[in-house]
Amino acid sequence: MQPPRILVLGPVKVLADGETRSLGAHLRTFLAGLVVSVNHAVRTDTLVDLVWGGDPPSALETSVHTLATKVRELLGHDALVMEDHAYVLLAGVDDIDACVFERDAALAEEALECRPARAAELARSALGLWRGPAYCDLADVDPFRLESIRLDQLRQGVSETLIRAELSVGHYTRAIPMLDSMLSEAPYREPLWAELITALGAVRRRGDAITAYRRYEAVMNGLGLEPAPEIVEALARATRATTPA
Asked: What is the pTM assigned to this prediction?
């Protein structure tokens, strides 16, 4: 039987006994407040502010104790300890999906140069852990806001690792839709345009390569900039590659 896993790459939930368990609003916030400082003490008054804001319940100590008890019921009694008016969530890498994601992301980056197929496998596994925005409905609240932004930036980096790994092993048709998707969100990332145009050329889609270049050119024109020479050259290579001898 797999140990419970806390899920924060999307709505905050707990995976236990093969079932994903949704949590009430107070328990969800309480657990999330522990996760962002996992293996470090979080003061009780900090957790109270997160859960209840400026309107704590009259039976505050009992309410906090109840939430702590529910966390222990979900994760195991030893997962949550109290010390000097603070709680500590004790967890390893495999116990939180965000930690698994970060580990696999780092391994994918390490493997990219020498083992691109393995890098692609690790990157796909890492990205597959996401079920929505990190911390979901809590992502507009400190301290979850900064953590959500940090994780999303890592997610974008893993997406680029996956694209480069797929390109390295010649899986251009896999990389092209991913590049299109990323450029719809980040049209100012010039290296991605070069990769998209190059990939389209590699699969002999000359017209699409030209269309992609025109999209890129329009983005640059909107900024009052000239297209980068390396992207002009990428288009030249793409059209040469697809023009019959």
From this structure: 0.89
